[in-house]
Amino acid sequence: MERKLLMRDDVPKHLLASMQLHVGDAATQSHGLQALYPLAFDAPHRVQLAACGSLPLCVSAMAAHPTVLPLQQHGCRFLQLMAFDDDCKVAILTHDGLPVVLAALDRFYKDKDLAISSSDLLYFLVADLDGDDDKMQGGIASAIIHAVVRVMDLHGSDARIQSHGVAILNSLVANDAAKPLLCTDAVLDVVEQAIGFTDDATIDSIVLLFELFQDTTCQTLIVNNAPTTSRYRSSLLV
């Protein structure tokens, strides 16, 4: 009820107007995004929030203050909820939200809360992108894989991060440019590690491993890239 009243009274519009007047103040942007987050829980409110210009403002605030952890946390959480709406997801991508979210995960991967929200958001953003999409050009696939492998390895006991991570990697297997980058021991290690955490993580892991192991080019890459400590796995492919 309280959220409905806030939306009815145009509180988000006034809040966003205040944030636009103080774009250089990281604390103002952080607190503003923190206040917007609970309003995005309701699907109808997401449409209203998007219409107010909240998405480009959030992305630009995160891009302008990349080293401020609270702002990045609140920004990722807000975008995570907004991305449940397909139009909002497209808008986030249109306003170059993908590299901004990836940068937040890359910088603050040790922070579990940010790792959870940003990895979930990252999956929503990349899941439906084709390999030839402009948003996947310029080495972004390699950066995504590197960030995901690192965060899965560090937070190896967190089921949400494991589930999000393997879902992201699985979504990239159909990308011709990204698929060879998945054929490494580092990727295989975290994918195997994710098995058993959740039903989704287990299914995604098995599907991804099947796709990689049945691809002859990937088999060759795995064998050639494997260190001497991993020759047993490689021997199973030849």
TrEMBL record:
InterPro entries in alphabetical order: ARM-like, ARM-type_fold
UniProt entry keywords in alphabetical sequence: Repeat
Superkingdom of the organism of origin: Eukaryota
Keyword Repeat found: yes
Name this protein carries in UniProt: Uncharacterized protein
